[in-house]
Amino acid sequence: MASTSDIRNGLCIRYNHDIYKIIEFLHVKPGKGPAFVRTKMKSVTTGKVLENTFSAGHKIEDVRVETHKFQFLYNDGEFYHFMNVDDYTQIRLLENVLDMPQLLKEGEVVTILINTEDNMPLSVELPASVVLEVTHTEPGVKGNTATNASKPATLETGAEVNVPLFINEGDKIRVETEKGTYKERIKE
Questions:
Q1: What is the pLDDT of residues 66-108, one digit of tens each?
Q2: The domain boundary residue, chosen from 62, 94, 110
Q3: Are 95 and 80 in contact (CB under 8 A)?
Q4: Is 121 found in the same domain as 143?
Q5: Residue 65, number of CB atoms within 10 A of its CB
Q6: Judgement on whether residues 142 and 174 belong to the same structural domain of the protein
Q7: Domain total for the chain?
Q8: Beta bridge partners of 154
Q9: Domain containing 172 — which CATH number?
């Protein structure tokens, strides 16, 4: 058993007969009244995001998890297949376990949280950012840069991201996996 002082990002807890992963949290100490912790949790089974407030000192049931490095192999439409980089065992996961499946490129190494009680995969954590090639985008219109203008671009994985006007087809860009947004162009 843990308490609210143990809450941190990535902690997996059992709540309402389901396992949730803490995405965001904030300890709040108001001038009047007791302290509390405001959390945003994501269900590892359904992917549903839930906001909840725990009073200070509230007991929570944490779930012991192990992290393992897995390499993304391929997607067969229904399942995403991964291989453990240490012992080469393979697992397959449904799309709802992944946060940003459209940013996964074959060969990408991800971290998978595994419940130690039943060895079931809980969630997949992508790297903070991934480098992907732009496969299609309209050319930028000259003189259309009075504001911070952007245009849609299709990446090699099929994902669509808004990029600045100077990005062309064939450019490699860095995409933040948490928000799925353009970060920078990669110079070669």
A1: 888 999 999 888 888 999 999 988 998 887 777 778 888 888 8
A2: 62
A3: yes
A4: no
A5: 20
A6: yes
A7: 3
A8: 136, 160
A9: 2.40.50.140
Q: Which two tokens stand for residue 98?
A: 């992944």
Choose one of 62, 81, 112: the last residue of a domain: 62
Structure tokens at 29: 């100490």
Q: How many CA atoms lie within 13 A of 29 on its CB side?
A: 3
Q: What is the pLDDT of residues 37-53, one digit of tens each?
A: 999 988 877 778 889 99
Q: Do residues 157 and 180 both lie within one domain? A: yes
**Does residue 70 sit in the same domain as residue 121?**
yes
Structure confidence by residue, pLDDT tens digits, 116-162: 888 888 778 888 888 888 888 888 766 655 567 788 888 888 888 88
Q: Within this chain, do residues 15 and 38 fall inside the same structural domain, yes or no?
A: yes
Domain membership of residue 88 as a residue range: 65-125
Q: What is the DSSP string of the chain?
A: -EEGGG--TT-EEEETTEEEEEEEEEEE--SSS--EEEEEEEETTT--EEEEEEETT-EEEE--EEEEEEEEEEE-SSEEEEEETTT--EEEEEGGGBS-GGG--TT-EEEEEEETTT--EEEEE--SEEEEEEEEEPPPPTT--SS--EEEEEETTS-EEEEETT--TT-EEEEETTTTEEEEEEP-
Q: Is 166 exposed, middle or buried (CB count within 10 Å of its CB: 0-12, 13-18, 19+)? A: exposed
